[in-house]
UniProtKB/TrEMBL annotation:
It holds the Pfam family Catalase. The lineage of its organism: Eukaryota, Metazoa, Ecdysozoa, Arthropoda, Hexapoda. The keyword Oxidoreductase applies. Residues 1-18 form the signal peptide. Its cofactor is heme. GO terms for biological process: hydrogen peroxide catabolic process; response to hydrogen peroxide. This is Catalase-like. Heme binds at Y378. One of its GO terms (cellular component) is peroxisome. GO terms for molecular function: catalase activity; heme binding; metal ion binding. It comes from Spodoptera frugiperda (Fall armyworm).
Length: 552
């Protein structure tokens, strides 16, 4: 009888399975909701036999621990021990994110500026992996928080990996690498209350380090919350030194310009989205790529010559300010296209290591002091998160690698097998080359700590285009100030008066209104729902009906 029941169940199950591929034909589901069904349709049968970590097959009786010898159940030991070790340290910044694969295609000849192979040869395509991220949110945070967003691009070039790291704002927070810890501490979590983004500490630090203000203006404006990773521009921030085959140098700022069009969310729209969907950006990107609406960006560079930088009346290497119009010319390079979602987020995104130090011949890189600090900081954080062999993790591996590095914490891959492990040697180990195109002269940049408020004045009066944008900017600044202690607010207002009198006057008025609104809100009690009676902690035994069944 049991065999017959089992056969009937199997037949029913097969009928249900065979109908899965047609079940949703007349229903619209987002690709993120279809992911498991898509996997099943792609794999009409089981992908194989379940094994333990060591490769031996799993007996079905070992899949439960009831009435079994738990100490000898290796599947249980595998499960518990690996679950405890699933997580690696999250990134200190840009912890929450997602990624995709794609390619970069050269669309214009830029050989007069750089001999980097990745940017030479019209129509040449280079595979890439990218990671999008929020800057201050933890792994479980909100995508639509008001903060800079990030884009990291890894180009798998024939000359090694080229990593370009970008922000959604065209200016950086600071230019002194010593400031990085203070900014992260001041703008993240209060050490006692554990409240994220304590506005008092953030504004306090900003007024004591006014160089932070320019980036803060961008973040508090309409540019602070773009409508998805696909609909924002990205900027590598630094002024890069590049060189052509004759050893001539140029100084450039790269820009990734979205071809989907820039779109923004107001604070009200962002709050409404955040209430129902913390993964709004991630969901939008996944759905677009899976639906064949491949996002793309134009890569351009603003160019100055060595002669140009000697004539400008501003520091072109200052990452906290924009270049002035008329001091450079813009050159198109190519197009970045994302056409494939990652297969496994941990393998392809969380283990991906991006470093500004990953450069290629023809792009010596920025010369400012912040960049020098970042080269050290990124290497250190990747050694901490992923181990010293992080470049041997599959997603980080270059197309070609021959090295004298050996051993260490896995992965070590083939570990260079039996090749010589020292240099120089006379046994045909890897040899270096001479790059005759490399520039002979090196530019030294002198920096200072002076604060220039002119870029902030320009932002308020010219970057912000109309009165509606200006009102939203003032509101975004003033409302959080109601949570800040008065001495810090007064210091901020003094700084704003140095920038623009109209700006300071309007923010002061808006701040006073916000203060009154906050005080009124504290007088209104927060409603709560009362549960009738005590919360049950036991299950009552139902009373049986003792009525006798009438006899027939």
């Amino acid at each position: 009888m049991k065999a017959i029941v089992a056969c009937i169940f199997c037949v029913i199950l097969r009928i249900v399975e065979s109908d899965d591929s047609k079940r949703f034909d007349n229903v619209t589901y987002q690709p993120v909701h279809r992911q498991l069904l898509d996997f099943k349709i792609k794999n009409p049968h089981s992908i194989g036999l379940w094994t333990k970590n060591a490769g031996d097959p799993v007996d079905i009786r070992d899949t439960v621990t009831i009435n079994s010898d738990q100490f000898s159940n290796q599947l249980l030991i595998d499960t518990i021990s690996t679950l405890d070790g699933e997580r690696i340290p999250e990134r200190v910044v840009h912890a929450k994110g997602t990624g995709a694969f794609g390619y970069f295609e050269v669309t214009h000849d830029v050989s007069k500026y750089t001999y980097a192979d990745v940017f030479n040869g019209v129509s040449k395509k280079t595979p890439v992996v990218v990671r999008f991220s929020t800057s201050l949110q933890p792994v479980g945070g909100s995508d639509v928080s008001r903060e800079p967003k990030g884009l990291a691009v890894k180009f798998y070039t024939e000359e090694g990996n080229l990593d370009i790291l970008c922000l959604s704002t065209p200016v950086f927070q600071f230019r002194d690498p010593m400031t990085v810890r203070e900014v992260l501490h001041g703008f993240k979590v209060n050490p006692q209350s554990n409240i994220r983004l304590d506005f008092t500490s953030a504004v306090d630090l900003l007024t004591l380090r006014p160089s932070l203000a320019h980036n803060a203006f961008w973040v508090m404006s309409d540019f602070g919350v773009p409508d998805g990773y696909r609909r924002m521009d990205y900027f590598p921030i630094h002024t890069f030194e590049i060189a052509n085959k004759y050893g001539e140098t140029h100084y450039v700022r790269f820009h990734f310009r979205t071809e989907q069009g820039v779109a923004i969310l107001t604070s009200v729209q962002a709050a409404a989205i955040q209430a129902v969907d913390l993964d709004y950006y991630n969901r939008d990107l996944y759905n677009a790529i899976d639906s064949g609406k491949y996002p793309s960006w134009r890569l351009e560079m603003d160019v100055m010559t060595r002669h140009d930088i000697q004539k400008v009346d501003f520091d072109p290497f200052d990452v906290t300010r924009l270049w002035k119009n008329g001091t450079f010319h813009t050159v198109p390079i190519g197009k970045l296209v994302l056409n494939k979602n990652v297969e496994n987020l941990f393998k392809d995104v969380e283990q991906a290591a991006y470093s500004p130090a990953n450069l290629v011949p023809g792009i010596p890189g920025p010369v400012d002091f912040l960049f020098r600090g970042r080269r050290t900081f990124y290497r250190d954080t990747q050694n901490y998160r992923l181990g010293r062999n992080h470049n041997k993790i599959l997603v980080n591996m270059p197309l070609y690698e021959k090295t004298y590095v050996r051993d260490g914490t896995p992965p070590t891959r083939l570990n260079m097998r039996n090749a010589p492990n020292y240099y120089p040697n006379s046994f045909h180990g890897p040899v270096p080359y001479v790059d005759e195109r490399r520039p002979l002269k090196k530019l030294e940049v002198l920096e200072n700590n002076a604060v220039d408020v002119e870029p902030l004045w320009y932002f308020y009066n010219h970057i912000i285009k109309d009165e509606d944008q200006r009102l939203r900017f003032i509101t975004n600044v003033a409302v959080p100030l109601a949570q800040v202690t008065p001495p810090v607010v007064q210091r901020l207002l003094k700084l704003l008066f140095l920038i623009d009198e109209d700006l300071a006057t309007r923010i002061r008025a808006a701040y006073e209104v916000a203060l009154v609104a906050q005080q009124a809100a504290t007088l209104v009690p927060t409603p709560s729902i009362e549960y009738p009676g005590n919360i049950p902690t036991t299950q009552e035994v139902p009373k049986h009906n003792t009525t006798e069944i009438p006899k027939s």
